[in-house]
Amino acid sequence: MKEQWRLLQTDFNTAFTNMAIDRAVLVANSKGKISPTVRFYSWKPPAISIGYFQSLNEEVDLDACKKLGVDCVRRITGGGAVFHDKELTYSIVIPESHPQIPKNILESYRRICGAVIRGLQQLWIESKYVPINDIVVNGKKISGNAQTRKSKTVLQHGTVLMDVDVDKMFSLLKVPDEKIKDKLIADVKQRVTSIKHISGNDVSFENVAEAMKIGFEEEFGIELVKGTLTKKEIELTEMFERECFSTNEWNYRR
Amino acid sequence: MQSKSIYKVPNGKILKIFLEYDEKCNLINEIKITGDFFVYPEEAIELMENKLKNMLLEREHLLKKIRSIIKERDIQFIGLDAEGLTEGILMCKT
């Protein structure tokens, strides 16, 4: 019989709730209380997440975000600033000691990205992993990924772009040199793609989630069983949202 | 004196350093190491910032110190390395 992992489909939440759920599941798993968990989710309102080591003021045009109703949150994972709009976001939480997870960090990025690549295959999209943390289609990025390891437990989350609006993205993010902003936008348009751009039509969140479910099941040889957050995880989520992700102290700490 | 640098680490990520230093003595007062790299464990970056306070702004000194902190604390950088971090810090001094 195949190993069963938990599947959470929490759909749309705020940035603060989303980051709190990922951390709550990470903490609960590290205490050995729950099975490996895969979650598919999205963001409402649209939001920018920044990497743990980034400076919010440095990366994000906060006035523009306010005007457009875009939330901002610091992740517990490293990596870059991401504008989360029309996308599916996945997260996986699994013990470091699990035989499916390579000890080497870059190898484990590759392995988990393998699940996303198989998921994209379900949508007739051929993609590949490009170190450190990207998945690309014909050289254009369709997915960015970030991983942390805490208390011997791995959390990796990442995006799968369903559609992308590079102009809007750049109206929210700061660029190092305003003089070359137009060129930068043109460059990024050449280097980013989405499911919609490739397949030529809109694919629903549910369809992408179903494809990704199969991708994770195939990559890891497991069965994903729909589940819900435990009572403890809900408590932890509320606590992390209130005391961490929605606070200025956390979001402006660097 | 306050200064800032942006440095693309070769084969790595973008490093942005905010530095406050004493020009006369060539010493670091405060340093903030930011960017889109990865550090395992993440908290090690704050430890690194604390340990670099009062360090002499000189390549060999910095490199040696950064390498020793990485080794001592078993820190893993991805998209960043000791040489890149040293370079980013020294670029603040112009």
- Could you tell me the CATH topology label of chain B: Enolase-like, domain 1
Count of distinct strands of chain B = 5
Largest sheet of chain A: 8 strands, mixed
What integer is the average pLDDT of chain A?
96
- SSE succession of chain B: EEEEHHEH
Q: What best-fitting shape of chain B do the alpha-carbon axes yield?
A: globular
β-sheet strand percentage of chain A: 25-35%
**Oligomeric nature of the chains:** heterodimer
**What proportion of the residues of chain A is helical, as a percent range?**
40-55%
What is the name of the CATH architecture of chain A?
A: 2-Layer Sandwich
Question: Major sheet of chain B: size, sense and barrel closure?
Answer: 3 strands, antiparallel
CATH class of chain A: Alpha Beta
Distance between the termini of chain A: 47 Å
Q: Spans of chain A of 5+ residues with little confidence (pLDDT < 50)?
A: none
Mean pLDDT of chain B: 96
The CATH architecture name of chain B reads 2-Layer Sandwich
Total separate domains of chain B: 1
> Which strand order do you get reading across the main beta sheet of chain B?
1-2-3
